[in-house]
Amino acid sequence: MRNITEEEIRELIETAMAQRRFSYAPYSGFRVGAALLAEDATIYGGCNIENAAYSPGNCAERTAFFKAVSEGTTEFRAICIVGGKEEKATEFAAPCGMCRQVMMEFCRPDFTIILATDTKNYQIFSLEELFPMGFGPKNLA
Ligand code: THU
Questions:
Q1: What is the pTM for the complete model shown?
Q2: Residue percentage of the chain with pLDDT more than 90
Q3: Which of 63, 80, 62 is nearest to 124 (CA)?
C-alpha cells in the first residue's frame, strides 16, 4: 500500500460519494461513484454510465481513468469507489475485472484501492491484492 493520509482518504471518499449523484444507471439501478488520485494530486471523478444496448456501458472507475488519461495524466496513487442500489451505500462495491485490468495498465502493484460506504466505513486494498498475477505492459516489453 502507498502512503496515503487520513485527509486524502476522506477527500477521496467524499468525492466518490458526490460523483455517485451523476451516475446514469437506469437499467441496473446500481449507482457508482469513483475518485481517482493522480500523482500530481489532481482528483478525477467518475460515475457509471449505462446504455440501452447494455454493452457500451462504462464503470465509474474506467470513466475516471479515461478522463484522466485523455487529459494527459497517466500516473496514479489511489482510487476510491462507492456504489450500491440504495440511496446510501451499505456494502463495498469492488471493481470489476475489466476495471482491474485498466488499473494494471497504469498503476503499480501498490496502487491503493479504497472501498467505502461513507467516510467512516472503508477498507483499503492494493492492486496486487485484488489483481494478483495480472497481465500488464511489462509482459509485452
Ligand atoms: N459498476 C461500476 O461502475 N463499478 C463497479 O465497481 C462495479 C459495477 C457498474 C456497472 C453497471 O453500470 C452497474 O454498476 C451494475 O453492474
A1: 0.97
A2: 98
A3: 80
